[in-house]
Design brief:
The protein is an alpha/beta fold and about 625 residues long. Helix content is about 55%, strand content about 10%. It has a five-stranded parallel sheet with strand order 7-8-9-6-10, with helices on both faces. A hairpin with a 4-residue loop joins β4 and β5. It is globular and about 85 Å long.
Length: about 625
């Protein structure tokens, strides 16, 4: 899946660059600085035409084929491994050249270049053209290095090398530098087994240097590169700004403190939906890349959980991730969990959006089961009309909106995203409405809830009398969830209660589809943010309720029972459990969703009122102090 700013690079354009790439491989010229009076002579570097005190320099040519011959002993022929590296490098250089062209062409590069050849550039245009040339050089070198590293599939060997300070004069110079570093690594290799890791280390060092330089000089031009995804589909290679292709990264073991279901007290509906979600995710069929719950309806792709601090949002995340991992371990499925937090917001322009895009893509990876969370979403993603939101927060908002419900969003059923917040009213309205479900995480509510949670957290290492025998009886999900859903037969929030009462007085309680439509329109009249997207989320919620069935635990105890079955068998097994949609379900889901919108709206309005009152009081105090000063 690619976002709306994806650019597919045509294969024909890449192959057109093959002759130029081959020329670089055969005769790459780099300028070498001779460092006097040091034991390390001959370190290669880029040197800007405009420099300070000039150190002695010389031009050095690097021929990769010759370097590869030196790495394998005295055999005059290249080995299969060496020849494969030559072929991969030619393509990597061609890809770097082509992507850099696609990057600069929309920015007026060709027009500026033509005018420069005719001598018609102003000083400002000359500066812009130089910046574009340098940005293109950096992009070409980075993409070529990342593509070859992706193609090698090797882990780097040895310690990182601190490369000399680099300048990026032209794409030809930059790519020549990359070739020279690969040639050095190849020359130092002792055999074919050593060759790949050494070249991978050289590429990793180049990439580290290029990433650092990109962030230092990040401007409008490079921001345009970071904002797009460039895809070479034949190689399954995607470049998203200055980050290595996601497919080159191995999955690290998940380290997390999981919670058991009984350790979540209260939050009955949210807990029940989390358990269902875990089972839904592992129903995914890897061969067909489909999920029966997506086809039948009711798959939970996105949701938002809100509640006061300390009500159990983190515990709920730990429980859900633990359940999914447990089921994946039984089935032998790879599992990816990632949390996107405030630490991913960068001061560099474009980097925050790049981080968010990488997070989304790693969770959506169709070769694994993915669960992604965005904790404190109100701090991570900024409201688009909030001048206090940083540019990084605004970038994240745009990426998440496109990923969760964009033109190219594809829901396969292998991944789900949860947003969590203590203050959901501070989340951008359009982003919040992209959450298909609302989980009210209100924590313990009843006397028995508080008894249960205190007993749970205190533990058993004490001699204090318990006072009762039946603990956790209120946490039995089936009865608790039914009771919680029944509460939504009628609205809870004052604003929605008024709408319900007025509608019931005029039309009676809804009994038909037409009645439901009239009720929804009445809600829209009272709450303008109740849009068509809200209706979609409600209907998705109703379908979810129809699929809100008890998937037998026995299905998940051994792979052959359910998880290891083919897609059609899974689909038939799940369909047999599907319940009919009832008017009770519809009204409960409408009221649950609309209650949340009124709750967010009321909180937002109350916060705005409090802020105005505070500003008024501050102005009054300031006026009083100024008056006292003038009187004295």
């Amino acid at each position: 899946m690619m976002d709306t700013s994806s650019v597919r690079i045509p294969e024909a354009r890449i192959q057109e660059a093959y002759p130029a790439a081959l020329g670089l491989m055969e005769n790459a010229e780099v300028e070498e600085t001779i460092e006097r009076a040091t034991p390390q002579l001959g370190r290669t570097r880029f040197v800007s035409p405009v420099s300070g005190a000039a150190a002695p320099r010389r031009m050095v040519r690097a021929n990769l084929e010759s370097a590869l011959r030196k790495s394998g002993g005295d055999d005059p022929l290249l080995s299969t491994r060496e020849h494969g590296i030559l072929v991969s490098l030619r393509r990597a250089l061609a890809v770097g050249m082509t992507v850099s062209e696609f990057f600069v062409e929309p920015l007026g590069y060709l027009d500026l270049g033509e005018r420069k050849r005719k001598g018609g550039l102003s000083a400002a245009d000359e500066a812009q053209f130089r910046a574009l040339v340098r940005s293109r050089a950096l992009v070409a070198a980075f993409v070529a290095s990342a593509h070859l590293l992706h193609a090698l599939g090797e882990g780097p060997a040895g310690d990182p090398e601190a490369l000399a300070e680099s300048g990026y004069d032209t794409a030809h110079d930059a790519l020549s530098f990359v070739v020279s570093q690969i040639a050095k690594a190849a020359t130092a290799a002792v055999d074919d087994d050593d060759l790949g890791p050494r070249i991978a280390r050289a590429l990793a060092d180049c990439i580290d240097r290029l990433e650092g330089d990109a962030h230092r000089i990040m401007g409008d031009h490079l921001a345009a590169f970071v904002a797009r995804t460039y895809a070479i589909e034949a190689d399954d290679f995607h470049i998203r700004g200055f980050e290595r292709s996601a497919s080159t990264k191995g999955r690290e073991p998940l380290v997390m403190q999981f919670k058991q279901v009984h350790e979540v007290v209260g939050n009955h509906i949210a807990k029940a939906q989390a358990i269902k979600l875990a089972k839904m995710l592992v129903a995914y069929d890897f061969e067909r890349q489909k999920n029966p719950f997506v086809e039948l309806g009711g798959f939970l792709f996105t949701f938002i959980g809100d509640g006061f601090p300390g009500t159990g949002k983190t515990t709920l995340i730990q429980m859900t991730a633990g359940l999914v991992k447990e089921y994946c371990d039984i089935a032998g499925y790879p599992f990816v969990y990632e949390n996107f937090g405030i630490d991913q917001i960068s001061e560099y322009q474009g980097k925050s959006g790049q981080n968010a895009r990488a997070f989304i893509d790693r969770v959506l990876d169709p070769t694994a089961i993915g669960f992604g969370t965005i904790d404190d979403i109100d701090q991570v993603a900024g409201k688009r009309d909030d001048r206090q939101s940083s540019s990084g927060q605004q970038e994240v908002t745009g990426v998440l909106m496109g990923a969760f419900s964009g033109a190219n969003t594809v829901v396969r059923g292998n991944a789900s995203f949860g947003m969590f917040s203590n203050y959901p009213e501070k989340v951008d309205d359009a982003l919040r409405q992209r959450a298909g479900a609302r989980w009210l995480v209100d924590g313990p509510q009843t006397e028995n809830d508080y008894i249960d949670i205190f007993h749970l957290l205190l533990g058993s290492k004490h001699d204090v009398p318990l006072g009762q025998d039946a603990f956790f009886s209120d946490q039995a999900l089936k009865q608790a969830v039914a009771k919680s859903y029944a509460q939504h037969n009628r609205p809870q929030e004052d604003g929605l209660v008024r709408v319900w009462e007025q509608h019931a007085a005029a039309h009676g309680e809804p009994k038909t589809i037409r009645d439901v439509g009239l009720y929804l329109h009445a809600i829209k009249e009272a709450e303008p943010r109740f849009t068509g997207r809200a209706i979609k989320n409600i209907t998705d919620g109703v379908k979810y309720r129809a699929m809100d069935v008890e998937l037998p635990d026995a299905w998940f105890e051994a792979p052959e029972t359910f998880l290891g079955q083919d897609y059609d068998t899974k689909l038939a097994m799940v369909r047999d459990l599907q319940k009919p949609i009832s008017m009770e379900m519809i009204l409960q889901e409408i009221n649950r969703y609309a209650d949340s919108e009124f709750r967010y709206s009321d909180k937002s309005d109350e916060a705005a009122i409090n802020e105005l009152i505070r500003d008024h009081r501050v102005r009054q105090k300031a006026a009083a102090r100024l008056g006292g000063t003038e009187g004295s």
